[in-house]
Amino acid sequence: MTYSSSTLFLALLCLAIMAAVLCAVLAGVMAGMLAYWDGASRPSALLRAGMAFGGTLTLLMALLTLIVSALLQVG
Question: Distance between CA 75 and CA 70 in Å, rounded?
Fold first, then answer.
């Protein structure tokens, strides 16, 4: 069974996006837990978790976009 290069590229891109979302979720959970343990209220800790998730996901998606565009320029 052979795969075309576009199929492999799409599969690796989906895998990279899933890894970025997982890292963002972990960062959000840890930020929320640390804020709650530091004495923040639950809504405040949830807000900090959401900000950490959003910031991390934005940064990772921008980095992934940069890498993909660089790879597409080469190929």
Answer: 9
Q: Where are the alpha helices (DSSP H) in 1-75?
A: 5-37, 42-74
pLDDT value at 71 more than 90: no
**CB contact at 8 A, 52 and 32:** yes
Angle (deg, nearest 10), helices 5-37 and 42-74: 160
Could you tell me the pTM of the whole model? 0.88
- The Cα 26–Cα 39 span in angstroms is 20
Residue 60 and residue 23 in contact, taking contact as beta carbons nearer than 8 Å: yes
Query: Average pLDDT over the chain, rounded to whole?
Result: 93
